[in-house]
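User: Structure with AFP, tokens only please.
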Amino acid sequence: MAPAENDNNTAREDHGDRTMHLGRTTLSKFLIDQLRNTPARNDLAALLVDVAAAIKAISAMVARGALGGSHDALTSHNTSGEVQKRLDVTTNDAILRYCEWGGQLAGMASEEMETAYAIPAEFTRGRYLLVFDPLDGSSNLDTNVSVGTIFSVLAHSGDHTAVDEDFLKTGVTQVAAGYAIYGPATMLVLTVGHGTHAFTLDREIGNFILTHPDLKVPEDTSEFAINASNERFWEPPVQRYVDECKQGTSGIRARDFNMRWIASMVAEVHRILMRGGVFMYPRDTKMPLRAGRLRLLYEANPMAMLIEQAGGAASTGRGRLLEVPPTELHQRVPVVLGSRNEIERIERYHQEYDSGSDKPYSSPLFNDRSLYRPEARS
Ligand code: AFP
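Assistant:
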């Protein structure tokens, strides 16, 4: 939507009954506007302001790079068995400290903690749950590549301190979702269910300023992101899709594609929100009993909500990501998200493979040993 010029030439976006002045709307003003007529109102706004404060603190930690002594690998491992960097732990602690005392939360969960974090007794318990990956892409820290924080807000049903089971809610129930990307600029991308909007941190005043309202993912794209080193482990429908993209103008897609892989999901999703594209981290036979690499509650679900709110699609390849029923806190899930028409094509290829109507793409060898065919799982 082109910015509407007004009498004093301040570019602004008109969003129905709300106008947002580009370059002037702060996060707090935005939240007041967005949540004005909702039951969430101030509670959710207050929580998101606390999350934004933690993100500012993390931005400062990340920006210090090696000077902060936080790139060192620790001897500890997280719940996924990955070596923790000191910054993984310090950023996790930052979010706990900034968000535990505001009276909005009944509990928190994160990639860096085995089980849910109980709000200390001295603080008022609230009605939301916060689940997050404090530093996604941290294996890139030594190479100074953009990393991020991913978070999801769920409503807590009950007045007890939250336990693991309370977090096992499908993605469609998320009240809010967002990420921070610590790149050349620190940006906060957020949805509270009314579109996806991006804010840029103005370090001089310490405020997030609305710079990209109402982001829209183009329905078509010629750019995809996948870790191609896993190609031999992918299921045939993923191999089929990527093969066709690589064939470019000489294949059925009749156009050339571009490939990206940053190994930092936040950076990939940010690119897709800015210009479209496809991101895939599918299940593969490398670890056939593992449903994928990415975690449902604090990576896939928040990113899926942001992408859908921007008009894109988010799938496991076989169904809508936001409808995957969680069974445990650190559950993994295949992720295929981005430009809607491409995601629909990838889902169609999975359907044709599962129904055996995708000849010649499903190789008999792969078929026999595939653990993924519905009948093979019985
Ligand atoms: P780290 O947080 O351990 O760096 O993992 C990042 C991530 O979860 C996600 O952000 C990337 O898209 C993906 O893993 C990269 O996985 P590969 O290292 O297998 O490419």
